[in-house]
Design brief:
Number of helices: 9
Number of strands: 2
Helix content: 55-70%
Distance between the termini: 120 Å
Radius of gyration: 37 Å
Structural class: mainly alpha
Strand order of the largest sheet: 1-2
Strand content: under 5%
Order of helices and strands: EHHHEHHHHHH
Largest sheet: 2 strands, antiparallel
Length: about 240
C-alpha cells in the first residue's frame, strides 16, 4: 500500500451497511460509546457530541479497540501520519468494505466520516467478539475436552493440565527455583483425579501394601529363625549318633 490513492476492498465492491443513513450512524456511535464505557476507555468525557472524531481521538479509540485483539500492542497506530497504517491493519483484519487513504486524511468531512465510522464500528464489533467470546473461552478452544473418539467429555484434557503445570514451573523458575517437587506432586494428583482415580483409596491401598510387606518380612524373619534352630537340632542329633557309634 503506497501513494495517495491507496485503498482496500474489492474493486467495485459495496458495503451493504447503510453508512450514509443518519439513524444508522447514531446507532453505531451509541454502540461504540457503550463499549468504551463498559471497558474503561481513558477518555471518560467522550460523548456523541465529539463525533465526527478528531484524528487524535480516532487513533486513540482505534488503538484501544485493537488492544482487545492483541493485548501485547498498546499503540498499533501512530498519532500522526496514520492513514497508511490504518489501511494495512484493516486489510489484515479482512475489513469487508472499501476504504481509501483520503477517507482518513479528511475524516471530518461529510463525505469521509460515514466510511470512517463504518471502519470504527467494525473494530468495535471485533473487540466485542474477542473480549466476550474468544478470550473467556480461550482454554476451552485451545484445549477441547474430547475423548479418543472425538466426543466431548466432562474431563479436562491432559494437554491443559500439562500446560498449566508448565506455567506453574515457569513461575517458580522465574523466582529462582531449579527443582519443582510441589508442582510435580500437584501434576500427578491432578492427572489421577482427572482420570477418575480415587486418590484416598490409592493411599489406603498403599498403606495396606506397606503393612503387608512389613508383616511378610516379620514372618520370613521368624520362619528363618525357626528353620535355623531346626537345622541346629538336626546337626546336634547327627553328632550325638556319630559319637555313640
Amino acid at each position: 500500500l503506497s501513494g495517495r490513492g491507496s485503498q482496500i476492498g474489492t474493486k467495485g465492491g459495496k458495503d451493504t451497511r447503510p453508512l450514509g443513513d443518519k439513524v444508522f450512524q447514531q446507532s453505531q456511535v451509541r454502540k461504540i460509546l457503550d463499549f468504551l464505557r463498559k471497558t474503561n476507555y481513558p477518555n471518560e468525557s467522550l460523548t456523541s457530541k465529539h463525533f465526527p472524531l478528531s484524528s487524535k481521538e480516532f487513533v486513540c479509540i482505534f488503538n484501544f479497540l485493537y488492544s482487545f485483539m492483541d493485548p501485547r500492542t498498546d499503540s498499533v497506530l501512530p498519532l500522526t501520519r496514520f492513514d497508511e497504517e490504518v489501511l494495512k491493519m484493516l486489510k489484515t483484519l479482512h475489513y469487508p468494505g472499501n476504504l481509501s487513504r483520503s477517507h482518513f486524511v479528511t475524516m471530518g468531512s461529510l463525505h469521509s466520516w460515514p466510511t470512517v465510522l463504518g471502519s470504527l464500528s467494525f473494530m468495535c464489533d471485533m473487540a466485542s467478539i474477542y473480549s466476550q467470546k474468544l478470550f473467556p473461552n480461550i482454554i476451552a478452544l485451545g484445549f477441547p475436552n474430547k475423548d479418543e473418539s472425538g466426543f466431548t467429555t466432562d474431563r479436562e484434557s491432559k494437554e491443559k493440565i500439562q500446560y498449566e503445570h508448565h506455567l506453574d514451573c515457569w513461575h517458580e523458575f522465574n523466582n529462582g527455583a531449579d527443582e519443582f517437587p510441589e508442582q510435580l506432586r500437584a501434576l500427578n494428583e491432578n492427572l489421577m483425579e482427572n482420570n477418575g482415580v480415587d486418590v484416598e483409596r490409592l493411599e489406603f491401598l498403599g498403606q495396606q501394601k506397606t503393612g503387608l510387606e512389613q508383616e511378610l518380612g516379620s514372618l520370613e524373619e521368624r520362619g528363618s529363625r525357626k528353620m535355623t534352630d531346626y537345622l541346629h537340632k538336626i546337626e546336634s542329633h547327627i553328632n550325638e549318633k556319630q559319637e555313640e557309634g
